[in-house]
Write a structure and sequence with these properties.
By secondary structure, the chain is an alpha+beta fold. It has two domains: 33 residues, no CATH class; 114 residues, 3-Layer(aba) Sandwich (Endonuclease, Chain A), CATH 3.40.960. Helix content is 48%, strand content 14%. The chain contains seven helices and five strands, in the order E-E-H-H-H-E-E-H-H-E-H-H. The strands form two sheets. A three-stranded mixed β-sheet has the order 3-4-5, sandwiched between helices. It has a two-stranded antiparallel ribbon with strand order 1-2. The protein starts with a strand and ends with a helix.
């Protein structure tokens, strides 16, 4: 959801051409979307810290993993549902123009390339979807614990 003034617009409303905001204003709003330290990422990190897990963040590795367990060589990515193409087959027909199709497709391809690069460097890679963390944080922590073994 995107919050604008007193109105909340879903990504789908925006992409389907129902956007009630000027192009300039939309551009400004989209430029404010963070790629690091998102609410979902912070929520996961706080839960890990409270469970006694210590980690590093945003170390310079391919793809800039969101959370790193250096001693276990585990790189964790928190992937936004829209930006990384969750259920892309369902989303694709609803996209208004080729820009978003190409953008999301390239993000998904880059994710695969980053996974390969990290694995070649000896890292295990775990990608968690934004909705997984929001819906079941404990299950996500369990996934991380299993990958650290």
């Amino acid at each position: 959801m995107t919050y604008v003034g007193a109105t909340i617009y879903s990504y789908m409303e925006i992409e389907m051409g129902c956007d009630k905001i000027s192009k300039e204003k939309r551009s400004h709003i989209m430029s404010c979307i963070k790629s690091k330290n998102t609410k979902v990422e912070i929520r996961l990190r706080k839960a890990l810290w409270m469970n006694g897990y210590r980690y590093r963040i945003h170390k310079r590795l391919p793809g800039s993993p969101d959370i790193l367990f250096v001693s276990k060589k585990l790189a964790v990515f928190v992937d936004g549902d829209f930006w990384h193409g969750y259920q892309f087959d369902k989303l694709r027909p609803k996209l208004k123009n080729d820009f978003w199709f190409e953008k999301i497709t390239r993000n998904m391809q880059r994710d695969k390339e980053v996974n390969v690069k990290l694995k070649k460097l000896g890292w295990k890679v775990l990608r968690l979807w934004e909705h997984e963390i929001n819906d079941n944080l404990d299950k996500c922590i369990k996934k991380i614990e299993l990958r650290m073994r």
